[in-house]
Write a structure and sequence with these properties.
Tyrosine transaminase family protein, PyrdxlP-dep_Trfase_small, pyridoxal phosphate binding, binds pyridoxal-5'-phosphate, alpha/beta, 291 residues, pyridoxal phosphate, 9 helices, eight-stranded mixed beta sheet, globular
Length: 291
């Protein structure tokens, strides 16, 4: 807004309304305020914490997220981050390598493009279809993807359209990701904040079809974006990321460039198809940053 032309007198509508705390009617629960206050006064949390988050917080968040999933998450599946923003930074940094590309929704959340460019990820846009409740244009996703595609990003509920994807549609996205051998990043920072009657379904529900990395935070639902608490979760009941990623998932949150997309994707595909003939972890010589 500060970049607007001061001489232009036309009224401007500010559409960037992502901070609920700006409105006095939206205030977080006193339970949360009391808990933070008690934690501060206890003097138990003034030191350096583990970079992946303190165990009690990791356990509490996986318990909360597991309620909506067919599988149970373990505290080892989650990394706490500085808001959802840092979770997204970590994952894009891990995916970035020369020639790799990422599939992003259009319209979408512009931070994705900015950070992807910074990490050396080529951005390819697929459309959300206004006539179909902003569903993903699955045909265009398939046309856009190639052997250098790492990931598809699904923002649900959607920013900027406010749409909520239906169960059947999300399942189709997971099936397409499996077919293409790519990961799904599910940005669920607006989880459970639904307009309309479609219930929110976490993408992790389909993690037995394709591995899903879910990112989220307390910023929106708890209306405290300034508290900067987010997470990055591996929804991977088949253990594909852990088994074939050579620890990349752990390292991702420490900002190391360790993901060899080809290796993970090929292994994921083979594993999901029930084949044991996936490439050995050290077989991939195509990518200098993979091992
Ligand atoms: C789609 C989407 N993802 C991620 C974020 C970042 O969330 P956080 O404030 O927790 O960093 C936002 C913030 O507006 C968002 O709209």
């Amino acid at each position: 807004m500060q970049n607007l032309d001061g001489d232009d007198t036309r009224p401007v509508i500010h559409l960037g309304q992502a901070d609920p705390s700006a409105f006095p009617s939206f205030r977080t629960t006193p339970f949360a305020e009391d808990a933070v206050y008690a934690a501060l006064r206890s003097a138990h949390f003034n030191g350096y914490a583990s970079t992946v988050g303190i165990p009690a917080a990791r356990s509490a968040i996986v318990k909360y997220l597991s309620k909506d999933l067919p599988h149970k998450l373990s505290p080892d599946n989650i990394f706490l981050t500085i808001g959802c923003t840092q979770a997204l930074e970590a994952i894009r940094t891990a995916l970035g390598r020369h020639g790799a590309n990422i599939l992003l929704p259009r319209p979408g959340y512009p931070d994705y493009e900015a950070r992807a460019g910074f990490c050396g990820l080529e951005v390819r846009h697929f459309d959300l279809l206004p006539d179909k409740d902003w569903e993903v244009d699955l045909v265009s996703v398939e046309a856009l993807a190639d052997e250098n595609t790492t990931t598809i990003v699904i923002i649900n509920p959607g920013n900027s359209c406010g749409n909520v994807f239906k169960y059947e549609h999300l399942k189709k996205v997971a099936e397409l990701a499996k077919k293409l051998g790519i990961l799904v990043i599910a940005d669920e920072v607006y989880e459970h904040l639904n307009f309309g009657s479609t219930p929110f379904v976490p993408m992790g529900v389909f993690a037995s079809i394709a591995p899903i990395i879910t990112v989220g935070s307390i910023s929106k639902r708890w209306m405290v974006p300034g508290w900067r608490l987010g997470w990055l979760v591996a929804n991977d009941p088949l253990g594909i990321l852990i088994k074939h990623g050579s620890g990349w998932f752990d390292k991702a949150v420490r900002f190391e460039r360790v993901l060899c997309k080809k290796r993970v994707a090929m292994a994921s595909k083979a594993e999901m198809e029930g084949s044991r003939a996936f490439p050995d972890l050290c077989d991939c010589k195509a990518d200098p940053c993979c091992c």
